[in-house]
Structure formats: structure tokens, C-alpha cells
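Submission sheet (multi-component)
Chains listed below:
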Amino acid sequence: MARITAGVGCSHVPAIGAAMDLGKTGEPYWAPCFAGFEKSREWIKEADPDVVFLVYNDHCTVFDASFIPTFALGCAAEFAPADEGWGPRPVPVVRNHQVMASHVAQSLILDEFDITIMNEMEVDHGLTVPLSLMFGNLGVDDEWPCLVIPLCVNVVQYPAPTGNRCYNLGKAIRRAVESFDEDLNVVIFGTGGMSHQLQYKRAGLINKEWDIQFMDRLTSDPVGLSQTPHVEYLREAGSEGVELVMWHIMRGALDDEVEEVHRHYHVPASNTAVGHIILANKKDLGVSI
Amino acid sequence: MALKKDYEDIPGTLVFDADRGREGYHLNQFCISLRLQKNRDAFNADEGAYLDRYPMTAEQRQAVVDRDWNRLLELGGNIYYTSKLGANDGITFQQLAGLMTGMGNEAYRKMMVEGGRSPEGNRYQHEWDEEGET
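Outcome: structure written.
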């Protein structure tokens, strides 16, 4: 059967993608941000996932204001990087495990998570930046080293789904994955955050103390953390900090007992606090299928 | 009974909720159209004719023409949408933040490099009122 063995939390700031695409990662502004991902790249090479289940939000690229699904699962064979106004990122096309994605879609709906099924979809920086951070610089003629199942979560128009709903969706994703017959090693990514506010007069808010407690509690108190009310994200972590609800989906899909393998925190990337964590199920530490 | 908006007392923050989504719909759809080069070309060739395609309010249209970034948000715009108008003009997210905060690009960038805007004194509207900020 397929199994989720580890989770990755990761910011997806567009400027990080631009810095990689433009060869700026060694510049003094960017070097400390990228240094924290060197260990992550070694880790994921060792973990060698067959499939990454990638939870992210679309930034009005596929879903403009005309339709706003709360949860949308990518079921197409592949997903091209989208033009977000500066031309598409020069990274590989993202390939799906399409059979598994349709299995997950069916399982989730019967499990009472009424997701939207996407049979045509481009992907924006929300999905490609975490892949680039974890797998390094790859060009349009390369291939990502694993298949990717995208799950988009609405966090642009308030309200995003609650942390509790997200945590429970993670549990349902786990049930879906474990009922898939093929022996596959799956790593789940929860992306976005950490504290940041891009808009209006309070733009630039960063709350390191709050971000650190969020990362601490992913291991020590994940259920309590998932009960964080939306207004706390908005007030303490900035209007765009509410993206962090997506990390609860990742956390919910893991065992109750996890070990923190790696953590990185850096301010700033453009307007944002970059947070990154790798959590592995204790029983899966060092195990690959 | 009205829904409780417990986020309305956060200073300097406009939460893009369902009401703002309704008010800003045509404005945001205009902005997002600029994601594509062919639309940017058409807009830049004749802003007025292009704006005629979107039934936004006169105030919203004027805020677009004026590139009044805060006014666009007050009238129902969302930053992920208005940033496409910014990108069309060659303005990055960070430069937009410099404009929206009134700090200017250099001071804003310096604040971010030094760790960002502290939450201290920036959580509740009354904290700003006492400081004489708006």
C-alpha cells in the first residue's frame, strides 16, 4: 500500500523563485535564506519519495474571482507552470500520479470532504517554489524527481477553511493514500506563511515569536494548534499569515508521534518570514520503501 | 443576525472577506486580466478603452487611473489582484508595500531587512489611534 512517511512545511514566496531563476541565490540578501535548505535537499534525496502530495494555494492564477473552490485537487496528467504576469517560471512541467489522484478524489468525497476536481490546471509559484527549494535548480528540459499531486486551498478570500477542518482533511488524505494498493512512499508538503502582510498600511508585519511557537507546536501540540482561530493569524501573523492553515493538512496526515528532522527560519524574503520544517513519522525515520 | 467580524479592529488591515469580494469583483477581474501579455498590451495601448470592458464603479476606475494602491483595496480590491496592475507598471510586491505604507521603498526595505514591522503596538486599532496614526 501507499504510505505517507514525512511532512514538509515550507513558505512559497514568489521572490524566492525569482532569486533562483535569476541566479541570485549567492547574493548576501538571499544566501542565508537558501542556506537553510541545503540539509533539506540532502534529506529529500535520501527519503526519495515516489509522490509528493503538495498542499498550496493558487494566487488568483487558475482561480480568479469568478470561482473560488475551498479545496481543489489536481487530477490532470500534468500541470504547466503558469504565467503570473512576469512570464512562466523556467522550471519543469509538473507530472501527476493520475491514477492515485483520482483514487484520492473519490476517497475524500466519500469521506465527506467535497473537493473540486481539476482536470485542467496550471500551477503558480505556490506550488513550484517549494519544489525548487526542496529539489534545487531544474530547468524546463529537466524532470522533477517525483510525481506531484497538487491540492489547492483557498486562502485568498476570507474565510480560509478552519485549521480544524484542515487538520481533519489531512487525516482523510492519509486514509485515502493508505487505501491505494501500489507500494509508494509519499511525502506531504504544507506550504505558505509564515508571518507576513502584503497589503495596506500595516504591510511588513513579521512576528518571529508567534512563528516559532507555531513550529514548536506542530510536534508538541498539533491538535491544540489546529484550533487557532482565524483572527489570531490575521492579528498576530498578518493578513496573509492565514496561509498557515495549510500546514495543518500536512500535520494531520502524519502520525501523532513525529520527530522534527530539520527546521529553518529566516527574515526576510521580500515581505515575508520564511519558515521551513521537516517532520518524519517516528516509526518511519530512516526507512524508505 | 449579522456575522461577527472580529478582524475589523486590526489596524492598517483590510481583510478580503465575502463582502469585499462582492464589492471588488469587477475591479479584481480587470486586474487579474493583466496576468496575460495580450491583455497588458491592449491595456497599455488604450487604458480607457480597456477599462470600458469592466463595469466597475467610477470610484474604482478612478483609483485604477490614479494608481491609488490603498484606495483600490478600500474599494474591494485584493492585493493578489492589484499586484497584477503593479506588475504591469513594473512595480514589485515590495515596492507596492513601500507605497501602501507611505514609507517609500528604501525605508520599507530597510525595515524588512531589520526583521520587519513588530506586532508590538500594531495589533489593535486603539493602539494606532493613541499614536495618532490613521
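Remark: Residues 26 and 56 of chain B are 5 Å apart (CA to CA).
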